[in-house]
Amino acid sequence: MQNPGTTQPQWYSSSSLSFLSSALFRDPKPKPILYTFLIISLFSILLVLSLSSSSPSQTHTRPDPFLYPTHQTHRIIYDQDKTAPPPPSIAYLISGSKGDSGRILRLLFASYHPLNHYLLHLDPSAPHSDRENLALVVQSNPIFKAAQNVHVMGKPDFAYAKGSSPVSFTLHAASILIRLSINWDWFVSLTADSYPLVTQDDLLHILSFLPKDMNFVNHSSYIGWKELRKLKPIIVDPGLYLSEGTEMFYATQKRELPSAYHLFTGSSFSILSRNFMEFCIWGVDNLPRILLMYFSNTPSSLSNYFPTVLCNSRQFNKTVINQDLLYAIYDGHRNDLRALNSTDFDDMIRSGAAFARKFQPDDPMLDLIDQKVLDRSPGLVAPGGWCLGEPGNNTCLTWGDASILRPGVGSQRLEKAIVELLSNGTFRSRQCI
Ligand SMILES: *[C@@H]1O[C@H](CO)[C@@H](O)[C@H](O)[C@H]1NC(C)=O
Ligand SMILES: *[C@@H]1O[C@H](CO)[C@@H](O)[C@H](O)[C@H]1NC(C)=O
Ligand SMILES: *[C@@H]1O[C@H](CO)[C@@H](O)[C@H](O)[C@H]1NC(C)=O
Ligand SMILES: *[C@@H]1O[C@H](CO)[C@@H](O)[C@H](O)[C@H]1NC(C)=O
Ligand SMILES: *[C@@H]1O[C@H](CO)[C@@H](O)[C@H](O)[C@H]1NC(C)=O
């Protein structure tokens, strides 16, 4: 909720304290609050035009104080719900390719919450007009405009899934999100073929009880012949040095596995803590940089980079949970994820996962999730505790305090899954092995 490129507004500086007090003095049913001022936002959406370190285009507006009353210096605090800690915030990167604008928007609506931050990315295969249209749609949405938390990357990055450019792209996007806001806690990168299985109220509610340094990452140090076949080739990813997409370059020679550190394999999806992302991006410690250079010539390095950094770092190896909270089914024959279909629906919901992948575009399963899980109508954001309008209609057009969550049954499924993960300390025995 910080305006990038502008000096930090005053009401912002005490946010951690007001967050804390808002949690201690939280009222489940919001009452009218005394507002000192109301700012009408004019430019809510940033088209982040920078590839390098230059700061994104400036805006001179502030987020809607109705959504973030705790940021105000003068406010009335009501009686309390002492059991619930303050809700955290998630930074989402939502990315897709040519023809994915519709899916990206749908995923944005389905996973939207005013406390979160969203960065949308269409890779270079999509025409620039798609990017502009995406930004226009986002800009014309009154909710996104009020919350000022949805951004579109104006200059796209190449990201070849089979190469190493996705690591560079992911770190670039995370660094933009770090610059955009100082108050998110977890980083989640979603591809256009993913979808949430719980509401954001469910997810934020459950995450609010967890230590903010936890990382949810599938990983293994077991390197069988299959993994060896993937890890030994040397590649050069054109996405890292050519402005036009071309074929990946494979060297004829292969190399040995590293002995200076332990290699960990994993999956390309993960839920990473802000601390850890800053560790990777700031590079004060040399480990993330060394591994970045090593993985730049390794195929599919996004699956392996973060697990390897986490598990080789004394500072972070105890923060990793060997489960990424994503429901996905691997197709052994095609060596890729298989598309989920209606046969998988019950198992998927029962799994207690927070997200699932991968879905065909406009799969009827998505409509089912909207209906049964998210209570979302087509073209609208999934409602949450911040939506105060009449039920049935576009209830989120009347909004209240974004920090008021109304978790539903999804939070019970997710809680059960996480309690199982953490029970008996079994997660310790599965850490970095
Ligand atoms: C974390 O790293 C330290 C030091 O390298 C090591 O002693 C410890 O066993 C590691 N923990 C895990 C869970 O790998
Ligand atoms: C992640 O690990 C869990 C448990 O080890 C497993 O059930 C799940 O299928 C894995 N996810 C992926 C995407 O490999
Ligand atoms: C779903 O996919 C599985 C595996 O590909 C297949 O066996 C099953 O028949 C599919 N079900 C439907 C309803 O398409
Ligand atoms: C929703 O809005 C429409 C048109 O504004 C109206 O006809 C309808 O009665 C409303 N439904 C509810 C449940 O309020
Ligand atoms: C935890 O321990 C209890 C009993 O000691 C056992 O029934 C349960 O299955 C264990 N849970 C896990 C996840 O291992």
Summarize the structure.
It is built from 14 helices and 15 strands. With 433 residues, the chain is α/β, with parallel strands linked by helices. Strand 2 (90-96), helix 2 (101-110) and strand 3 form a beta-alpha-beta unit.
Amino-to-carboxy terminus distance: 39 Å
Low confidence ranges: 1-60, 72-80
Strand order of the largest sheet: 1-4-3-2-5-10-7-11
Largest sheet: 8 strands, mixed
Structural class: alpha/beta
Shape: globular
What small molecules are bound in this structure? 2-acetamido-2-deoxy-beta-D-glucopyranose
C-alpha Rg (nearest Å) = 21 Å
InterPro entries: GLCAT14A/B/C, Glyco_trans_14
Subcellular location: Membrane
GO molecular function: glucuronosyltransferase activity
Transmembrane segments: 33-52
Account of the 3D structure:
- With 433 residues, the protein is of the alpha/beta class.
- It has one domain.
- The chain has 14 helices and 15 strands.
- The protein has helices at 15-24, 101-110, 128-139, 142-147, 165-180, 200-207, 225-231, 274-282, 287-295, 302-312, 345-350, 364-374, 409-422, 426-429, and strands at residues 46-48, 90-96, 117-122, 150-153, 186-191, 194-196, 215-220, 233-236, 249-254, 265-273, 320-321, 326-327, 330-331, 336-337, 355-357.
- The strands form four sheets. Strands 1-4-3-2-5-10-7-11 form an eight-stranded mixed sheet, sandwiched between helices. Strands 6-15-12 form a three-stranded mixed sheet, with no helix packed on it. A two-stranded antiparallel ribbon has the order 8-9.
- The longest helix is centred in the middle third of the chain and has 16 residues, at 165-180.
- The radius of gyration is 21 Å and the shape is globular.
- The structure holds 2-acetamido-2-deoxy-beta-D-glucopyranose (5 copies).
- One 2-acetamido-2-deoxy-beta-D-glucopyranose binds next to loops.
